[in-house]
Specification:
The chain is mostly helical. The chain has one domain. It contains 19 helices and 4 strands. Strands 1-2 form a two-stranded antiparallel sheet. Strands 3-4 form a two-stranded antiparallel sheet. Helix 2 packs across helix 6, helix 5 runs antiparallel to helix 17 and helix 6 packs across helix 16. The longest helix is centred in the N-terminal third of the chain and has 23 residues, at 53-75. The protein is globular. The model has no long low-confidence stretch (mean pLDDT 91).
Length: 369
Amino acid sequence: MGGIAVALILAGFLAPRMGALFVLGILLGATLYHSGFSFTGSYRRFFLKGDVTIIRAQVLMLIVASLLFAPVLASGSAFGREVVGAVAPVGWQVAIGAFLFGIGMQLGGGCGSGTLYSVGAGSPRMIVTLAAFCAGGFIASLHMDWWQRLPEWDPGALGDLLGWAPALALQLAVLFGVDAALRRFGSQTPAPASPVSLARRLVAGPWPLWIGALLLAGLNLATLLLAGHPWTITWAFTLWGAKAAQHAGWDPDDHAFWRSGFQRDALDASVLEDTTSVMDIGLIVGAFGAAALAGQLKPSFAISARSLAAAILGGLLMGYAARLAYGCNIGAFVSGVASTSLHGWLWIVTGLAGNWIGVRLRPRFGLQN
């Protein structure tokens, strides 16, 4: 009850739209925590054991999100507000960024969403990863002039290129094909039978993966309608890193990325005016509340030096790489694919390659596979 009271107090300080986005963040955090909707762990299990259980749930989420997004993005507006998909260019910058992000996921122990909900669930190690994540994003922002000289192609969304009906049909065919291949060649872990009542499971978890997939797709649609863009995470980390640097004496006027436009406006404003920041904070609060209700808030401070080094390196890599790749596994991959942007598909292909490398680096840092 205390967590609910804190959440309500925080929401009360926000404008109505931001308060609604904060609540969406809380729901996302609770859903991720209770459904165990892991990206980092699912890719590790896939490479080591061929287990595709959670990956198939991710595909289900993408199918549902694609169906939900298409009519909204085709119209271009909702409730009088312009809406845009998560669309970005395809090029070396995305490929390199996603590859490095994949390595960082396995060393840091979480992705964009996983880092936040693990922090909310009380993991001291993931607090270190998050701090390094913010630093990495800020450092990358100082180098963006160089990275943006690399070749890239800006095709836009397939929905705009082909028309939304053909683009949706093509994307669904690909996603169902991926699911069929995973079902045919991968192994799956049966959901454990739970002696706990359904009512208790709703409060304490775990939730079935398919429920997590449907809820995450629906909450992403709600984000699109309220924020005007799909669910994103890592922009806030870059912003938080820049604000910390500014307090330490850094001058944003020395760097083109921060001199004008959206970035400078966000830097000059409160974080409570930034939609991604508000949702990220809500996600942490939601995961905290979910863990507390489940009686699983048991932080462990027994962190080895090698594990701490991996958390720092992984966070730095993810922060830097997310800036290059126009987002993380959520903003670039999930929301990008749901928006029919080809950069989302490029992200997951190169991101999986990075995860493969990261899995094999983990033992060098004393991390168990």
